[in-house]
Amino acid sequence: MTRWGFLAVALLAIAGCAQPEPRYVVGNPYRLGGIWSYPQEDYALSETGLAEVMAAPISGGQTANGEVHSAQGLTAAHRTLQLPAIIRVTNLENGRSILLRVNDRGPERPGRILGVSPRAGALLGMAPGRATQIALALDGEKSRAAAEGLPGQAPAPIAIAAAPRAAVAREELAPLPGTREAPRREVLALPTAAPMPEVAPVTRAVIIALPETVTQGSPQPGRLFVDAGQFSQRDIAARVAARLPGARVIQQGSGRNASFRVALGPFADVAGADLALERTLSSGVSGARIIVE
Q1: Rounded to an integer, what distance in angstroms lies between the CA atom of residue 80 and that of residue 40?
Q2: Which of 2, 48, 205, 256 has the highest count of CB atoms within 10 angstroms of its CB?
Q3: 137-166 pLDDT, tens per residue?
Q4: pTM over the 0.85 mark
Q5: Do the strands 96-104 and 75-77 form a parallel or antiparallel pair, or are they unpaired?
Q6: What is the mean pLDDT of the segment spanning 30-46?
Q7: How do residues 244-264 score in pLDDT, each as one tens digit?
Q8: What pLDDT is attached to residue 165?
Q9: What is the pLDDT of residue 21?
């Protein structure tokens, strides 16, 4: 191999060793597992549903926001949350809960709201290959701290002090003997320069590992339903329900604050809920999901 060949190989090796740069991501709508998802920034998300343990990642692979996949990290995949986000996940079947960092998109299978890393699944007591009932709550303060300073965030506005206005001064001198008084003159004082704003040094984002602190609560398993949507008008909800065998309209609230939810279930097991969800999605109700109540 020539000297230039060795140089090219060395440059490629250096490029391959470059560390990925984590960034803040919301992203555009995308199709995964036959379902369209619409990412959005949400610092108050709270939901229930089914979760699964993700397969061990390929070594060196990157997540949707540029982090490195890790089977031992306390990480998770969500279809719509901004990345990164910090969430508290509770296994409703055994009461265990833990903080996880959402840094990827998924899961691929419809009816699953969250995919967790193998390490997170082990700490939560989730069996691989089996759906688990969970509750998910986003931690707004920790999520903002995790995203602070990452590329992709809108920069904070820089406060610049207004330049001082020019001051007008009048100078009066007594005339010397034998001379006449000179015309009065107005002298324009030169403005002082506005101080330059301090520019923070550019630093590489550092991902702080979450502690493996498991909180033990009481198990609260619920019943599985398929939620086919919530509507402000009963007649619209009734038309959707008429397309779904076994669906019913449930009124929530009263008067002008009333809303009407279309639901199917409860189902005895995950297989029944999955089948009902598949039929609901096939009927054109794209926002249908499995929830736990």
Answers
A1: 6
A2: 48
A3: 999 999 999 999 899 865 444 444 555 555
A4: no
A5: parallel
A6: 95
A7: 999 999 999 998 899 999 999
A8: 53
A9: 83
Beta bridge partners, 51, equal 114, 132
Answer whether residue 205 shows pLDDT above 90.
Answer: no
The owner of tokens 């926002």 is 287
Gap between the Cα atoms of 275 and 111, Å rounded: 10
Residue 270, token pair as written in the block: 């995950």
Residue type, 191: P
Structure-token match 């991902």, residue found: 207
Rounded CA separation 130/17 (Å): 36
173, 179 contact by CB (below 8 A) = no
